[in-house]
Structures are given as structure tokens and as C-alpha cells.
Amino acid sequence: MSIAIYILVMAGVTYLIRMLPFTLFRKKIKSRFFRSVLYYIPFAVLSAMTFPAIFYSTGNTVTSVIGTVVAVVLAYFKLPLIVVAISACAAAFVSGIFI
What we know:
The chain is an all-alpha fold. The protein has 4 helices and no strands. The radius of gyration is 20 Å and the shape is flat. The termini are far apart.
């Protein structure tokens, strides 16, 4: 019985999070600042959740930093995402063998 209550509460919270913006903001948001804040929120949240996990993913901070540096450099040169991801994984793996 208690698991059904948990599921109902989770469903209600999820629904409220998705419904509230539609009910609170019926007109187009004209504030340029507020629109830019709303535009960048998904990127900020994703970065805040992903970036700390990168440094603990290999179990060795040094190999994680090497993989991250490779990823940042390749992304700076605008290489495709698959190239960046595979290269970062390979760099972390190879550095893990030698360290």
C-alpha cells in the first residue's frame, strides 16, 4: 500500500512541475533577461549533474582529468560529439593502464 502512495506522490510532483509554468506564464515572456535565464537553465543543470560525476567515473582522479582535458580540447576544435566521447574514453583508459 505504501508503494502506491509513493508512486502517486511522485506522479503529482512531476505533474505539478510540468503544469505550473503553463499556468503561471500565459503570455509571452517579454523580459530579455528572464528569457535568457530560462534558455540557459537546462545547460546549467545538466553541467552541474554531469561534471562532478566525470571525476569519479574511473576511480582515479588523474585518469579522469586526462580524459576531461582531451574532451575539452577536442570540443574546442568543434569535432563531432562521437569523436570527442570516444577519444576522451580512450585517453582515460590508456592513461589508466600506465598510471
